[in-house]
Amino acid sequence: MSFDSISKRGLVILGCGRMGGAILQGLLKGGLSAGAVWVIDPHPADWLQNAGVHLNTDLPANPAVVLVAVKPQMMADALPHLSAMAAGDTLFLTVAAGITMAGYERMLGADTRLVRAMPNTPAAIGRGVTAIVGNPKATAQDLDMAEELMTGVGQVVRLEYEDQMDAVIGVSGSGPAYVFHLIEVMAAAGEAEGLAPDLALQLAKATVGGAGELAERSDETPGKLRENVTSPGGTTAAALEVLMDPDTGMAPLMRRAVAANIARNRELGK
């Protein structure tokens, strides 16, 4: 990574909890100097206090980037204090769900250069996927900078429109929780058929993790990979008849789940 602009002007991180901390750790591992980072966090983790960053001190007047990683309900109190930065050429990069660009512009000013980013929790191990989209004030260089910063915690995709962010939150933003629940119910099904709890959980974790990595690495579609495992009239086919039922199977259930997620996200954003 190239951090010339940040090294000269600084990076401010507002809130360094799980996601902000994962991003910071990815940047430090990628070669960013801790001395170029200012963190505002009222309850810093132990590792952060020994990371060499500027912690809860006066901020630079014109940093290259402000990374907003506080909870949505704290935005109204935290952001207006940074409006002077927004009036300059500082890029604001936010990883919080539920607040639209219009909401940020009301708190920071209409001239704010803003990029919304939606990572997910596997960012904590460098395996996240982040969608980004900029407001009209964000330049091509701003989007490049945002992508470079978020690449430290996984893959990055660019959206064409902010409206697509709702679907991103419904699919990948909250998606790890769906997968974790899949592991839970697979393990519970194994237990119900006589497996020891620890063994059932080990099998479920390894199966989901391995299948996910195979899907990422393979040039074949998930549908083709599924067909490769399924012998006509066999045991997998019997299970898939249940899972692929058009009325009660996984597809209609997942559509309802994602739709409920999006509806709630829109309620929170009002």
Automatic annotation (TrEMBL):
Catalyzes the reduction of 1-pyrroline-5-carboxylate (PCA) to L-proline. The lineage of its organism: Bacteria, Pseudomonadati, Pseudomonadota, Alphaproteobacteria, Rhodobacterales. Belongs to the pyrroline-5-carboxylate reductase family. It catalyses: L-proline + NAD(+) = (S)-1-pyrroline-5-carboxylate + NADH + 2 H(+); L-proline + NADP(+) = (S)-1-pyrroline-5-carboxylate + NADPH + 2 H(+). It is an enzyme of class 1 (oxidoreductase). Keywords: Amino-acid biosynthesis, Cytoplasm, NADP, Oxidoreductase, Proline biosynthesis. The keyword Amino-acid biosynthesis applies. PANTHER family: PYRROLINE-5-CARBOXYLATE REDUCTASE, PYRROLINE-5-CARBOXYLATE REDUCTASE 3. Transmembrane segments: none annotated. Residues 214-227 have a biased composition (Basic and acidic residues). Residues 162-268 form the Pyrroline-5-carboxylate reductase dimerisation domain. Its main location: cytoplasm. The gene is proC. GO terms for molecular function: pyrroline-5-carboxylate reductase activity. Residues 12-96 form the Pyrroline-5-carboxylate reductase catalytic N-terminal domain. InterPro entries: 6-PGluconate_DH-like_C_sf (IPR008927), NAD(P)-bd_dom_sf (IPR036291), P5C_Rdtase_cat_N (IPR028939), P5CR_dimer (IPR029036), Pyrroline-COOH_reductase (IPR000304). This is Pyrroline-5-carboxylate reductase. Residues 212-232 are annotated as: Disordered. It comes from Thioclava arctica. It is found in: Cytoplasm. Pathway: Amino-acid biosynthesis; L-proline biosynthesis; L-proline from L-glutamate 5-semialdehyde: step 1/1. Its EC number is 1.5.1.2.
